[in-house]
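To the wet lab folks,

You asked to see what we're planning to order before we commit. Fair enough. Below is the target structure as tokens, and below that is the sequence we designed to fit it. If anything looks off to you, flag it before the synthesis order goes out.
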């Protein structure tokens, strides 16, 4: 029995016997140490899983946009170089022991784009320079006033200049260009003026700080412009082109989906169409990005195809033209809550999802006209996007597509005018013939709720086409101000235009055939 005791010495078994004599299964008792180990093991495995997921997300961020990794490397490079002023004794003594201000400047002003970095560097140097010399002047005036009056002079100057600097940040024209400079001015003046009350060599302190900030800012400018530069102007240019393409695809896909609800599409095609329909949301959410990029682009020097005085403000007008749209009509109050082409497309999406389906007769009658207006309008937008992308004018092609859009709109308006005669053949002027009587007998009854969705869609399309004309004018103004070149490769561009138009016609014909089968 002794060996068996030794075997079961580490495990204790418990048997629970009920009152009626039945017993439960044997369960080994878990000790406190084992419970603690299992808890610690679970915490470690959970922490390791979170770290693994974080590393995976970070890797995905870096692979999706390598420029973020390059920006991190540039920041590290700039900090490593500026740290030499702190580590090397000759450089450290040359700036009076204030080398840490250069390191802080690099950390604060270094931004991903060249324009943003130049904006911060210029504002930091200018704000520090003005604040430093004003603080030295106030200190001299206060020191000449006597020991009793000196604190009041310094306090009053801090109050007045800090209040004035804060108020200047609320002025829109100052806020857009010198907001960061005003903040640095308030900070530097308050620091130098207040510390000057206890420091004897105030002028040297201000001078050394200005020098170290100039050193840090200059180093940031060199690194950001020489090592894989990212230009704010180029980013704005690409953003406008992408938004125009997305707006065109969203408009074309929305109308095509509305008139092609026969259920023959595959899941992959439906997913692709849904992705196109979501493109207008990028237009709606890009206003802040456009304004920020345009503001930073004005600080950048000449680069690539963009001159120093490139009309970046005109890009904002193009973005506003893509968003801006007048009210549709008073009767369609549900569709006139917004004033942008993208919001009109969103209203089209709501029409698609409406439970009140238009009558097949009205849908077939207006389908061809709506699809022509949609395809011609999207072709105009794509042509404008190509003009902005290549920075070369194609006036003949743009005018041709614009005239085609106007012709399609006129045809759709004529179709809308014939709806009453289509639904009520007896209203056609003239004597009622046998053919008219047969037409009355075969014409289905259409309720108002069945008629509203498709008529609403047609009205919105007409409104969008009118707003596209403003977009054409904005792009033409940009081409004039930026002095776009003329596209000499007419044959290649003509083939591309013909291919675009033919693809649109094939898509329209296919949709109409599907609509007729329904």
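Sequence we intend to order:
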């Amino acid at each position: 029995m002794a060996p068996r005791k030794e075997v079961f010495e580490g495990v204790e078994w418990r048997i629970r016997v009920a009152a009626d004599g039945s017993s439960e299964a044997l369960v080994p008792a878990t000790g406190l140490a084992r419970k603690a180990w299992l808890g610690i093991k679970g915490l470690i495995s959970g922490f390791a899983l979170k770290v693994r997921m974080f590393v995976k997300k970070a890797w995905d961020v870096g692979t999706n946009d390598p420029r973020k990794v390059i920006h991190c490397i540039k920041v590290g490079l700039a900090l490593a170089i500026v740290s030499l002023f702190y580590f090397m004794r000759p450089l450290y003594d040359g700036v009076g022991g204030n080398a840490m201000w250069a390191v802080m400047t690099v950390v604060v002003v270094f931004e991903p784009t060249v324009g943003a970095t130049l904006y911060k560097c210029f504002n930091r140097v200018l704000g520090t320079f003005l604040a430093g010399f004003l603080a030295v002047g106030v200190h001299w005036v206060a020191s000449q006033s006597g020991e009793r009056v000196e604190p009041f002079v310094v306090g009053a100057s801090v109050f007045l200049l800090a209040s004035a600097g804060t108020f200047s940040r609320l002025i829109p024209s100052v806020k857009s260009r010198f907001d960061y400079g005003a903040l640095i001015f308030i900070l530097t003046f308050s620091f130098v003026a207040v510390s000057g009350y206890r420091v004897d060599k105030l002028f040297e302190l201000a001078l050394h700080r200005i020098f170290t900030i100039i050193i840090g800012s200059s180093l940031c400018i060199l690194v950001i412009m020489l090592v894989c530069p990212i230009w704010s102007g180029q980013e704005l240019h690409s953003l406008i082109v992408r938004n125009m393409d997305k707006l065109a695809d969203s408009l074309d896909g929305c109308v095509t989906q509305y008139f092609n609800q026969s259920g023959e599409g595959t899941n992959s095609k439906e997913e692709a169409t849904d992705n196109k329909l979501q493109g207008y949301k990028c237009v709606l959410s890009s206003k802040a990005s456009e304004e920020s990029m345009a503001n930073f682009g004005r600080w950048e020097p000449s680069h690539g195809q963009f001159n120093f005085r490139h009309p970046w403000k005109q890009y904002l007008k193009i973005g506003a033209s893509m968003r801006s749209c007048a009210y549709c009509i008073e009767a369609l109050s549900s569709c006139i809550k917004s004033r942008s082409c993208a919001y009109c497309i969103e209203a089209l999406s709501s029409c698609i999802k409406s439970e009140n389906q238009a009558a097949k007769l009205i849908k077939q009658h207006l389908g061809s006209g709506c699809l022509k207006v949609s395809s011609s309008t999207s072709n105009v937008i794509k042509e404008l996007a190509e003009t902005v992308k290549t920075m070369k004018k194609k006036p003949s092609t743009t005018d041709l597509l614009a005239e085609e859009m106007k012709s399609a709109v006129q045809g759709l308006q004529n179709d809308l005018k014939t709806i009453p005669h289509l639904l009520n053949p007896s209203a056609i002027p003239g004597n009622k013939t046998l053919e008219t009587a047969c037409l009355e007998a075969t014409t289905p009854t259409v309720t108002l709720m069945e008629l509203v969705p498709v008529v609403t869609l047609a009205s919105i399309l007409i409104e969008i086409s009118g707003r596209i004309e403003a977009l054409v004018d904005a792009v033409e103004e940009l081409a004039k101000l930026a002095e776009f070149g003329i596209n000499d490769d007419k044959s290649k561009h003509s083939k591309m235009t013909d291919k675009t138009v033919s693809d649109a016609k094939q898509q329209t014909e296919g949709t109409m055939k599907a609509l007729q089968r329904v």
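Structural context that might help your review: The first strand starts at residue 13 and ends at 14. Residues 232-259+272-338+357-423+446-499 form a domain with the Methane Monooxygenase Hydroxylase; Chain G, domain 1 fold (CATH 1.20.58).

Thanks,
Computational group
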